[in-house]
Amino acid sequence: MGKHVQAGQLQVWTEQVGEGPDVLLIGGLGDTVESWQHQLEGLADRYRLTAFDNRGAGRTAMPAEPPTVEAMADDAAEVLRALGIESAHVAGFSGGSIISQELALRHPGLVRSLVLQSTWSAMDGYLKALTGALHWQLGRAPDPRSFLEYFYLLVYTPRAYNSGMVEKIIDDVLAFEHPQSDEDFLKFLDAFIGHETTGRLGGIDVPTLVLAGGIDPMSRPELGRAVADEIPGALFEVMAGEAHQPFQEIPGIWNARVHEFWQDADRKHSGTTWS
């Protein structure tokens, strides 16, 4: 069962499962604890995993002031402190990967390693155009299902559409008891458009794995490679045939890869391995 914790001025909804080394999972645009279901279920036998709803998503309220990536990174840091976690392996996807970058830069002592899925250091013109399209699609779609059917074309593979996976995800989103408002969705989106970590990522001094989907139309592999190139010693891998969220589409493969990475990170850090 999840619970709210006091994280700075916010009551942040969190869920924690499992035993072992600590892992913090940070979701993306409008995503909640539920987006990490396959990791919370598939890795809890090896790790203590903590996930949370970002400000303005799910069961965490949006403050009055406009959100910033820096503030959301501070939220993540306060969640760790509130739960008494001294340091954690941090994994984030999409917007959550940008929050993860800032968390490592602003609170380096809390971060043991980084997994950055579908990431970038600065939106290029193409990605800015896609986010702009989300703005007008949200306002013009005839209903929420139609908007999600469009939005998820940017997120999931044709395989996921054709198998019925996307339809089920949309059904679950529309049935969720704590939907994100359109206003908060756009506030969250806008926080990332002008945000940049280019030129600062060299300050990250923890083992880092950057993963990109080979057919991701948003966080294209070249954007992820630019992030990895700037972080000292970072690994960069392309998951061929995958889109924006392989941790949901192929969770067994994704979980196995990050487990291997976390084992290596722990081995280098303290000589400890976990099976």
Query: Approximately what portion of the residues adopt beta-strand conformation?
Result: 15-25%
Reported for the largest beta sheet, the result is: 8 strands, mixed
| Rg calculated over all Cα atoms | 17 Å
Q: What percentage of residues falls in helices of 4 or more residues?
A: 40-55%
Number of strands: 8
CATH superfamily: Alpha/Beta hydrolase fold, catalytic domain
Tell me, briefly, the overall form: globular
CATH class label: Alpha Beta
Strand order of the largest sheet: 1-2-4-3-5-6-7-8
Outline the low-pLDDT stretches: none
- Secondary-structure-derived class: alpha/beta
CATH topology: Rossmann fold
Helix/strand order, N-terminal first? EEEHEHEHEHHHHHEHEHH
User: What is the overall pLDDT average?
Assistant: 95
Q: Oligomer, anyone?
A: single chain
Second-tier CATH architecture? 3-Layer(aba) Sandwich
- How many structural domains are formed by the residues? 1
DSSP helical segment count: 11
Question: Can you characterise this structure?
Answer:
The protein is α/β, with parallel strands linked by helices and 275 residues long. It has a single domain, classed as Alpha/Beta hydrolase fold, catalytic domain (Rossmann fold, 3-Layer(aba) Sandwich). It contains 11 helices and 8 strands. Strands 1-2-4-3-5-6-7-8 form an 8-stranded mixed β-sheet, sandwiched between helices. Strand 7, helix 9 and strand 8 (235-239) form a beta-alpha-beta unit. Helix 4 packs antiparallel against helix 8 and helix 5 crosses helix 7 (165-175). The chain is globular and about 55 Å long.
